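**User:** I keep going back and forth on a fold encoding question. It is easy to fool oneself when nobody else works the same problem. Could you pick a protein and write out its sequence and tokenised fold? Could you put it straight underneath, so I can go through it closely?

**Assistant:**
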Amino acid sequence: MAISSSSSSVLKIMLLLFSAVVGSGQLSPTYYARSCPKALSTIRAAVQSAVSSEKRMGASLLRLHFHDCFVQGCDGSVLLDDTSTFTGEKTAGPNQNSIRGFDVIDNIKKQVEAVCKQTVSCADILAVAARDSVVALGGPTWTVKLGRRDSTTASLSQANSDIPSPTSDLNVLISAFSKKGLSTSDMVTLSGGHTIGQARCTVFRTRIYNETNIDSAYAASLKSNCPSTGGDNNLSPLDVQTPVTFDNNYYNNLVIKKGLLHSDQQLYNGGSTNTQVNTYTRNPAKFSNDFAAAMVKMGDISPLTGTQGQIRLNCRKTN
């Protein structure tokens, strides 16, 4: 059947619009709908399997996405190993002997490559895996915008300077998030990710031995697993109440001075963020909704799109 000139014009316009959306730097929830329709289900199944095997892995995958987005944007740079031309981010202070889950991401990438060759970026896998991890531990879901591409380099210096420290005061936390386009409210909300996961003794030792805004019985219980010297890698849950369930107990803990990290307790220490913490203790549904929205916003930090970057075949190295 012949195509009329008017129909041809409409078709050309539709193609131009499609090309504009794909190459304009905009992310879209339906990015892989045609190119890799099994991508999301493949990632979800792999995450569910990993979290089922080890509950802590859910928090680790969520943290990988966070540490990725805060350095060069959400571009998969955190996954790169060191090379002869650059030092990766894995040995940065906030990451060394701390971030984990790289083997799970490798496994997910291998499975995704099996269903669609060089189509789904490692950066997008991190974003989807973070969402699926939260869901697997009973938390909210959200629609992940897709279409990120992978960086070809990493930044050790930016990882050291831009990822907030567990010893940060409130003003430092506010500034670190603001630098990434995230509000103080976003910061308090995203900190709720600490309702799951564990931390090493070395990052909370000073708090439990020297700080006064901590429940004394809670501090004493922590000291049994975190001596004043040694035991640096001994772990304690960030949420003492429900450490493997994504809920609002992180905020309930802060109100009773049971924040594990100095940076956690800073959110409820007589400052400007007390009100939001109190709101989340009373309204877990609001926390869930806000967390979902804040994760989408964080996922929008400086993505590589269109012809920028590449789709890595191996998340640990460039093509």
Observations:
- Residues 1-24 have pLDDT under 50 and may be disordered.
- The CA atoms of residues 84 and 153 lie 12 Å apart.
